[in-house]
Amino acid sequence: QSALTQPRSVSGSPGQSVTISCTGTGSDVGGYNYVSWYQQHPGKAPKLMISDVSKRPSGVPDRFSGSKSGNTASLTISVLQAEDEADYYCCSYAGSYTAVFGGGTRLTVL
Amino acid sequence: QVQLLQSGAEVKKPGASVTVSCRTSGYTFTGYYMHWVRQAPGQGLEWMGWINPHSGVTTYAQKFQDWVTMTRDTSTSTAYMELRSLKSDDTAVYYCASPQFSGSPWAFDIWGQGTMVTVSS
Questions:
Q1: Which of A61, B24, B110, B112: CA 20 to 30 A from B3?
Q2: Does B9 touch chain A if contact means CB atoms closer than 8 Å?
Q3: What is the pLDDT of residues A18-73, one digit of tens each?
């Protein structure tokens, strides 16, 4: 199972919006609505930000949103804040009761 | 509150085995699957597999099929992950993670603190 493809890095200024893409195949991202997104600050465990493509868990700011088109899922962070600077990972169900993560994207807030 | 408390850091020699534990509290252990995820230094997250604590049924990522075993002890509400025939590139932080409140079986909203496993001669 190959890792999902994410850009290595993205950046934006405070107040701007950024979008992180996550590209897979019809056997994972495109085949199921089980894409989740995680935020990870250095030295910390990942934190769930989006589940099932676009559902936001309780406590996650509504600045974070998710979507999917075909084999590509996206995480959009609007009104960037300094504390959003972190690594972001997508994850998808990949059939046969397995999952696969993306390679991760480093978000820099300029 | 819901907590996953993992065992401490380990240093192992190549070829050895390691077992990482994940002790749970604050919820019904047998009610939620437990997944294991690892992260090599400076690298991304890698899904390893999961165990159904109720039945003991496991599913492993194909990469780990022959050298990982996930088990559980329902009497202590603890999940275990054993990795055998360790190599230097197994050096990583190992996490247990569970989908609890997300309502989705494939969205992990509760994570352990991570266990650093170092493989070095």
A1: A61
A2: no
A3: 999 999 999 999 999 999 999 999 999 999 999 999 999 999 999 999 999 999 99
Residue of B nearest to A56 (CA): B102
Mutate to test the interface with B, among A40, A51, A88 (most CBs of B within 10 A): A51
Q: For strand A72-77 and strand A99-101, is the pairing parallel, antiparallel, or unpaired?
A: unpaired
What are the two backbone dihedrals, phi and then psi, of residue B80, each rounded to the nearest 5 degrees?
Answer: -130, 150
Tokens in use for A68?
């999917």
**Structure confidence at residue A2 as a pLDDT band (50, 70, 90):** confident
How crowded is the C-beta side of B63, counted as CA atoms within 13 Å?
Answer: 13
**Contacts for A60 with CB less than 8 Å, ≥ 6 apart:** A48, A49, A50
Best B63, B95, B109, B116 member to test A by mutation, with max A CBs in 10 Å, is: B109
